[in-house]
Amino acid sequence: MIEDTGLRDLHKIVVINPKGGCGKSTLATNVASTFARRGAFPTLVDCDPNGFSMRWLEKRTDKRPPIFGIEAYDISDGPAEPISARVPEESKTIIFDLPAAITSGQLIEFTYLADSLLVPVMPSAVDVYSATRFIAELLLNRQLDRRDKKLAIVANRVRRNTKSYRMLQRFLTSLKIPVIAEFRDSQNFVAAMDEGIGVCELPPYRIRNDIGQINALMKWLERRPALDGEQPEAEPLSEDRLSDEQRMELIAAAAYRRAEERGFQGGDPSLDWAEAEREVDATYKRHTT
Ligand SMILES: Nc1ncnc2c1ncn2[C@@H]1O[C@H](COP(=O)(O)OP(=O)(O)OP(=O)(O)O)[C@@H](O)[C@H]1O
Ligand SMILES: [Mg+2]
Q1: How far apart are CA 148 and CA 50, in angstroms?
Q2: What's the first-to-final CA gap in the chain, in angstroms?
């Protein structure tokens, strides 16, 4: 188990999404290298037995601003020594690169632990459906309180004008979950990964279309949730009324189920969404009349 005690003074950034290959390690390594360039000596914790982040770190030369690496592959049984004991004192930021396969216990644990919870999402129909289901799951199981503003989406390998990406935006807007950056589908991310660096460390002329998004991501991360001021009071819910958020959560889950039932083949995500809306509204109406 990851012990929160001892990690208390650190900004804990957790990169999470149960969908494989959506860009968790790419995002985690880019966050780490950008903090490093800003002189923050971040700690990168690789929780994935594939060791993608650690291999990236091994490629990083001494000429680059340092990043401290911790292997924590066996997050189910816990590392031999608590992570907090291994984080260098100078390090004020810790980034967890999670594997796709995590247990529901680990999901709860990391959701609680995080100050910032980053979910990279690719705009393919399958990825969007699983992201909406994942977020709906987080919210429905009350593992996450939306009001603490620690959850944000990074859209990865973006092609903006796809139906599925518009569906994701609609879902997130209704839940007030911000998309804080949009990464292009670009060889820059692949090249940086190969060299043990972040995109921000590539020559400036190569990254003029990427750096704005990296900066936007860092701007959001550098706000500390605790400093964001008073949290708004929870809106009281009357027993027979579904809040907008609850309605959206149910619609997301219903839309996902539709796509899942046909094996994500064919179909139309917008149509799924519209039918899910009708289904949820009809069911809800039946309950209240
Ligand atoms: N914005 C991008 N542009 C181009 N290629 C990308 C981008 N983001 C990720 N990739 C590539 O996609 C692949 C998967 O990315 P990555 O390993 O970061 O995903 P992951 O979520 O960590 O995967 P896993 O679930 O297996 O841990 C990698 O080959 C990576 O280089
Ligand atoms: Mg990974």
Answers
A1: 32
A2: 47
Q: Match 């209240």 to its residue by tokens.
A: 288
Mutate to test the pocket of ligand 1, among 26, 158, 160 (most ligand atoms within 8 A of CB): 26
Collapsing DSSP states into helix, strand and coil, what is residue 13? Answer: strand
Alpha-carbon span 69 to 88, nearest angstrom: 10
Bridge partners, residue 257, by sequence: none
Structural domains of the chain, with CATH: 11-121+186-221 (3.40.50.300), 244-283 (no CATH)
Q: Whose CA is nearest to atom 8 of ligand 1?
A: 23
Supply the pTM of this predicted model.
Answer: 0.83
Both tokens of residue 114?
Answer: 């995080």
pLDDT-based confidence at 19, cuts 50/70/90? very high
Contact 240, 222 (CB under 8 A): no
**Nearest C-alpha to atom 2 of ligand 1 is from which residue?**
185
